[in-house]
Structure formats: structure tokens, C-alpha cells
Amino acid sequence: MTDEPRRRGAARTDELLRVTLETAAEVGYAGLNVEAVARRAGVGKHTIYRRWPTMAALLLDALSRVWTTDLDYHDTGDIRADLREQFLRSAPALAAPPIGPVYRAVIAEAQADEALRATLHDRFLRTVEESTLARIKRAQEAGELVSGVDLTFPAEVLCGTLYYRHLLSTRAVDETAVDALLDMFMAAYGT
Amino acid sequence: MTDEPRRRGAARTDELLRVTLETAAEVGYAGLNVEAVARRAGVGKHTIYRRWPTMAALLLDALSRVWTTDLDYHDTGDIRADLREQFLRSAPALAAPPIGPVYRAVIAEAQADEALRATLHDRFLRTVEESTLARIKRAQEAGELVSGVDLTFPAEVLCGTLYYRHLLSTRAVDETAVDALLDMFMAAYGT
């Protein structure tokens, strides 16, 4: 029975994070503030502020809740096919609700807040870069990619190019873009 | 004498754009609004709203004012050296005042506004991609890069990777990053 308050607290937290995502998806970034989330969740603003000092902190936790390991790379032994499959699967998942609007909102806030930018990178983008690096390193060990090359920056190029297209243009991260990116990557490092 | 009102109008516009940049550099994105710019410029808010319906529209024009052709590529006949020189020259110019804070603010606003994102891409990023493409196409014609390859997407990769690092991490666009990017580009397309 001593765990009951903790369980209730966890349920309340989960509910708040769910409502945050829901609100972001419905009202968009412009209408997103602690007041709107509190109203929809039926709690006082102080309940939110006690735990999350800023909207950005709340958004980061809301993002974490839905950022799943489903976004991980497969390993079928064909590096080009596995990268292609993951990019084409994760790009729409990261662009659409529930992740899309919240992710964009955090990225926007991070432009004016270097500490938030560091947290955003540590909690999300570093993870993406590292899982990409892990997958292409395995391909290198398997002889699919040239040996003796440090692939750390190429992993950043793969992720960065697709983020750039998503954030700074109205062009989609589609098959044409992904294939062109993989053409360049394989031209550079394929065996 | 009939041109006098037009000249005065142009001078007033230029002054407003200058003040916008100055305000952005000093107060940062958080403190940036039409009221603050109007106060510093000594004009009424309506004077600004008559010409620029949103802060974003004003910011785009302010950016245009200082976005100079000094950011263009050189052509010494050495593609790797010319790309390197341009990346290392333009990255700090785009990150520091007067361009840096305004550019980041527009990019942040564009995350919640697809029309602004399209305008931002058309007025600035497309220009960057196209001048990069023009420079690497000349290198291809000169035999420095492999022939028969469409370099449109590689130009996007070059720009996008550096924007990603600038916008979504706290890592600098430094010599190490630029050299690693050029290693990949030349491994893919160098002759």
C-alpha cells in the first residue's frame, strides 16, 4: 500500500504528458502554453510548474513518452536497404502527430535557448546519430563499407541532411531524397 | 524633386530594418516584437504594420538587407579548397550578429508556419543550395568531380549537414566538421 501515492503520481504524470501531446497536435505551437495544458488536464497551473519549470521541459518529457525504440534500425545484413527502410519509416513518424508538432515546437524554442538546445541534442538527436553510427559500423565490420574510415561524421551527415529538409524546406523526406542521400553515402563508403 | 518622398520612404525603411537587426542582436528572440522595434525606431506600430503584417515578414526583409554576396563561393580551380574556404567563412557570418539572431528567430517562427518556411527557403536557403550546386557543377565540368552524376542532392547534403549542426546541437561548424564533410563529398565524387 505504501506504493499507492507513487503509482497515483506516475499515472497523473502520464496523463499530463498525454494531454500535452494532444494539445500540441490540436492547437499547434502558437496555442501551446502551460495554461492550455492545465485547463485540458483539469489541474492547476502550479501542479505543472512544480514539476516542469518551463513549457520546453514539459515538451521534452512529453516527447520522451512517445519516442519509441520502434524507430531503431533493422539489421538484415543489407546496409543500404536497412538505412532506406529506417529513414522512410522514421521520417513520417517524426513529422506526424503525436511527435511531429511537439518536436517542431521544441526545436523552435531551442533556437532562442542554448541550454534547451543542448538538452534536445542529448536526449534525442544524439540518440539518433549514435544508433545510425552503430548500424553503419556493423556494416563496416561486415565488409559492406570500406574499412579504416571513421564513420562518426558520416552518421551525422545522414541524419542532418534529412532534418534539414524537414525543418527548412517544404520538400518532403521522400523516396527520391532518401535514395539520393544513399547514393552519395554508398559512393563514398560502399565496397 | 518628385523623387524626394520616395527617397525619404526608402531611408525610413532602411532605418527600420537596421533597428530591427539591432534590437534582435541586443534583446534576443524573446524580447523581439513589433512594439520594441517601433519604440526604438521612434515610429508608431501602425507604421510597421502597414508595411509588414507580421514580425516574421519584417525579419525576412531585415535579413535580406545584410545578406550579402560576400557569402558567394570563390573559384580558384580547387573545389575542395573553395568549398572549405566558403563554409568556414560563411558559418560564423551566419551565426553572429547582425545575421545570426535574426536568422535563428525566423527559423524558429517558421517551425509553426509553413508559408513562412516556404518563403524562408525561397529567399535564402534555395540561394545557398543553388550557388553551391553552381560551384560543384563547374568543378564537374573541369574534371575535378566525376561526370555523369546529378549533383543537385549532394549540394543539399553539403548545406544541410552544416545547418543541422548549427541549429540542432551546440557543436560548432569548425574545421574538423568541415573537413569531415569534405572527406565524404570527395570520397563520393572526387576524381
From TrEMBL, chains A, B:
Query: Which residue spans does the record list as DNA-binding?
Result: 33-52
Enumerate the InterPro entries for this protein: Homeodomain-like_sf, HTH-type_TetR-like_transc_reg, HTH_TetR, Tet_transcr_reg_TetR-rel_C_sf, TetR_C
One of the entry's Gene Ontology molecular-function terms is: transcription cis-regulatory region binding
Which top-level group of life is the source organism from? Bacteria
What region holds the HTH tetR-type domain? 10-70
Per UniProt, the keywords (alphabetical) are:
DNA-binding, Transcription, Transcription regulation
Q: What is this protein called?
A: Regulatory protein, tetR family
